């Protein structure tokens, strides 16, 4: 079967194939179960644990979970026994320590509960099978530490590493093969010497240091609050594309790199702006509904689903949770969606830019700080101008951005996210904060020691800033509440009511590192502001309002440059940002260098203690190495695709034109159209051949740069190979526009984006 026939067969299958039907769980009386009745049924929650354990054992575990004591052997053995019974009752035959290596995804190694006990009898030895899971097996496992990215901290002959149960995240079961299940134990991953080899260890460390710093500041501002713990909350809006799996299987570039390396836009894509929030296609709705059911069972609170801007692009978003749990749930959601999509003959694409010319995908991280008393420290309340605690924590975040914006740029940098950042669809490389007119006015009024201005909006005179009421002038419609701030979709870091939305995070990356960096920078700013307050207070035990205002005014002045309310995509902002001294870090390899610059390294290692210097340098090496490898894989894939499929297709079409012209010449028929087509194809084929050869030369140049260090290797990949890939693509896409459809070997954008 030819490539063209395979394409058509895949299209017919997508249109006529059998659709998967899932029966929603029902009660004994036949009525559908409520989501709340399904939620967490496959999770070994604290409530489940409390029922399964003796009260003293459970109390001991809670003390350990709160950091007040170590987990003793008796408690660990009791929990291991209880969770084994619970899991095996749900079909589990194996368990796995589930962790987050620095690969952007998760990892797992399965071990069976089955064990053999040797009995010594007069007749000899006899092995008895039993199901066993001990406390020591629960607490840790030992995957190979040499086969994951370590940035040189581990070598092949230094293979030992440990996964350790993260008691702050609940264990759960997932379906395995043949009706069985697997017990998942959320874990951290460290080397034999205790170095963090994963994303989660540093996230948990950053949560701890931020909690201590923020708790100290809250109790200094309001001693009567008696706050004992502060934590960060996170809600991750996950964007993705869904394409037909058979069409996907015919695109080697999608399978190998996650994005299309060639391809022209169809005449209609997103320009009518009719896909966003439109009707979800039935096959997609079926898949997402199954995803939501699986997530309910796993205790993942998916709240929202909708069409995104580009065709075949969608989004799901959860309710906010504690940050480390939210990260676990985001990665688990991505994994479950991958499996569910497969069942519906779909393929999920998490790459930030799988299709050139339409919007890419992000992972908007909605981040806030909360106390153990249920208070959101970033809630402005109805009178933010007198809520000094809110203003101080707001300024701590702004100060973090002002001092360590390059680190946030590092945290979202990758070869894939580079295709999206600043492309009129996602925040640019300049990190700034959007607060909205009202909060900006509050800060300006405090700084200038004057009353607030009276806002008025001519077209809606009934808008009241204080009461936040909006009357839309239609008698049948009710008045509605109005948020304190508008939205700015161009801002990389926008305040959205009672949280910050870090919009620049890439769709396929783990949120762990971006949140870790943000936590660290905010912690450093809190330390600084706390010290400034104590200095201002002098011998006083509690700062007066005047003490608070003096510190607030100083930090409003210092952080003014990082606040921007306009269009972050505009060229005017690039000029203005340069005037303000804000860094414009245009490429990932350039961003990576900031990770080991003294100012930022000192904050991450000495001031907050989240990383050791070795861990930080190893991460720097991994980031550079991953960037270069990604580019090499793309270049080699494209080189093979052009040489083995696209050029042969162009040659075949050119040959058909030539043969047609020759046959018509014998018949003495006018040859104008055929000759014109040949004259159009021939130079494009030559251009593609030339650029194809230059791509090979760029790869050779890149290989020669490897011996000069990881960053030089990444810089060379960025400056030589990436442009060479773009030039090859331009030539190939020009050919796709004129080569007859039956000769083109790959499914086109029209088929990939509009066939679901």
Stretches with pLDDT under 50, minimum 5 residues: 456-467
Helix amount: 40-55%
Separation of the first and last Cα atoms: 24 Å
Structural class: alpha+beta
Number of strands: 20
CATH class of the domain at 34-198: Alpha Beta
Mean residue pLDDT: 90
The largest pleated sheet is described as: 9 strands, mixed
Radius of gyration equals 29 Å
Report strand %: 5-15%
CATH architecture of the domain at 34-198: Roll
Overall form:
globular
Can you tell me the CATH topology of the domain at 34-198?
Answer: Ubiquitin-like (UB roll)
User: What's the name of the CATH homologous superfamily of the domain at 34-198?
Assistant: Glutamine synthetase, N-terminal domain
Q: Total number of helical segments? A: 22
Describe this structure in words.
- By secondary structure, this protein is α+β, with helices and mostly antiparallel strands.
- The chain has a domain at 34-198: Ubiquitin-like (UB roll).
- Helix content is 46%, strand content 14%.
- Strands 10, 11, 12, 13, 14, 15, 16, 19 and 20 form a 9-stranded mixed β-sheet that branches. Strands 1, 2, 3, 6, 7, 8 and 9 form a 7-stranded mixed β-sheet that branches.
- Helix 10 packs across helix 11 (323-343), helix 12 runs parallel beside helix 15 and helix 19 (613-666) packs antiparallel against helix 20 (672-705).
- The protein is globular and about 105 Å long.
- InterPro entries: Gln-synt_C, Gln_synt_N, Gln_synth/guanido_kin_cat_dom, Gln_synth_cat_dom, GS_Type-3, GSIII_N.
- It comes from Coemansia spiralis.
- Residues 93-194 form the GS beta-grasp domain.
- One of its GO terms (molecular function) is glutamine synthetase activity.
């Amino acid at each position: 079967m030819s490539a063209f026939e395979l394409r058509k067969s895949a299209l017919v299958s997508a249109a006529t194939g059998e659709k998967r039907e899932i029966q929603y769980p029902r009660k004994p009386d036949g009525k559908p179960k409520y989501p709340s009745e399904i939620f967490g049924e496959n999770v070994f929650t604290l409530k489940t644990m409390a029922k399964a354990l003796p009260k003293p054992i459970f109390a001991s575990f809670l003390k350990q979970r709160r950091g007040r004591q170590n987990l003793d052997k008796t408690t660990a053995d009791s929990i291991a026994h209880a969770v084994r019974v619970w899991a095996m009752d749900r079909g589990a035959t194996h368990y796995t320590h589930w962790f987050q290596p620095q690969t952007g995804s998760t990892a797992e190694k399965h071990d069976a509960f089955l064990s053999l006990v040797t009995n010594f009898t007069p007749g000899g030895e006899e092995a008895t099978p039993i199901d066993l899971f001990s406390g020591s097996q629960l607490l840790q496992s030992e995957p190979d530490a040499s086969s994951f990215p370590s940035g040189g901290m581990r070598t092949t002959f230094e293979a030992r590493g440990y996964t350790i149960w993260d008691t702050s995240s609940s264990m759960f079961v997932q379906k395995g093969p043949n009706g069985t299940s697997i017990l998942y134990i959320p874990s951290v991953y460290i080397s034999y010497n205790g170095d963090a080899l994963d994303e989660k260890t540093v996230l948990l460390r950053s949560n701890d240091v931020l909690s201590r710093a923020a708790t100290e500041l809250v109790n200094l501002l309001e001693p009567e609050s008696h706050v004992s713990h502060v934590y960060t909350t996170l809600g991750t809006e996950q964007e993705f594309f869904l394409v037909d799996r058979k069409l996907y299987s015919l695109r080697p570039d999608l399978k190998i790199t996650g994005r299309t390396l060639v391809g022209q836009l169809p005449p209609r894509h997103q320009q009518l702006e009719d896909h966003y929030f439109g009707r979800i296609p039935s096959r997609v709705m079926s898949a997402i509904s199954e995803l939501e059911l699986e997530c309910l069972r796993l205790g993942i609170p998916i709240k929202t689903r909708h069409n995104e801007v580009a065709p075949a692009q969608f989004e799901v978003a959860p309710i906010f949770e504690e940050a480390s749990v939210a990260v676990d749930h985001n990665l688990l959601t991505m994994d479950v969606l991958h499996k569910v999509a497969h069942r519906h003959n779909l393929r999920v694409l998490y790459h930030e830019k799988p299709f050139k010319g339409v919007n890419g995908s992000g992972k908007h991280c909605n981040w806030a700080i909360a106390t153990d008393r249920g208070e959101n420290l970033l809630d402005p309340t109805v009178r933010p101008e007198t809520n000094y605690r809110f203003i101080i924590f707001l300024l701590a975040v702004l100060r973090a951005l002002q001092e360590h914006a390059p680190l946030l740029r590092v945290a979202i940098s990758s070869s894939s996210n580079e295709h999206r950042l600043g492309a009129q669809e996602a925040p640019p490389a300049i990190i700034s904060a959007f607060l909205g007119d009202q909060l900006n006015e509050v800060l300006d009024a405090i700084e200038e020691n004057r009353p607030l201005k009276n806002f008025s909006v001519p077209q809606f005179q009934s808008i009241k800033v204080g009461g936040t009421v909006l009357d839309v002038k239609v008698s049948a419609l009710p008045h509605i509440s109005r948020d304190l701030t508008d939205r700015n979709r161009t801002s990389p870091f926008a305040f959205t009511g009672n949280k910050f939305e870090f919009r620049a995070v890439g769709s396929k990356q783990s949120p762990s590192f971006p949140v870790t960096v943000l936590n660290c920078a905010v912690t450093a700013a809190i330390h600084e502001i706390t010290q400034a307050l104590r200095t201002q207070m002098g011998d006083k035990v509690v700062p007066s309002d005047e003490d608070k205002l003096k510190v607030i005014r100083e930090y409003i002045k210092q952080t003014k440059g990082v606040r921007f309310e306009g269009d972050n995509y505009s060229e005017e902002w690039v000029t203005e940002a340069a005037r303000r001294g804000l860094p414009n870090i245009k490429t990932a390899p350039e961003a990576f260098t900031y990770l080991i610059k003294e100012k930022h390294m000192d904050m991450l290692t000495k001031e907050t203690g989240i990383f050791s210097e070795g861990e930080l340098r190893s991460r720097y090496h991994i980031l550079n190495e991953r960037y270069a490898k990604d580019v090499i894989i793309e270049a080699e894939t494209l080189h093979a695709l052009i040489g083995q499929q696209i050029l042969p297709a162009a040659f075949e079409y050119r040959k058909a034109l030539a043969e047609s012209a020759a046959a018509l010449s014998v018949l003495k028929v006018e040859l104008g159209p055929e000759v014109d087509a040949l004259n159009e194809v021939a130079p494009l084929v030559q251009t593609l051949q030339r650029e194809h050869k230059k791509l090979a030369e760029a790869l050779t140049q890149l290989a020669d740069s490897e011996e000069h260090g990881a960053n030089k290797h990444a810089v060379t990949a960025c400056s030589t190979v990436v442009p060479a890939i773009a030039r090859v693509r331009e030539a190939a896409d020009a050919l796709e526009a004129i080569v007859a459809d039956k000769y083109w070997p790959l499914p086109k954008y029209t088929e990939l984006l509009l066939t679901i």
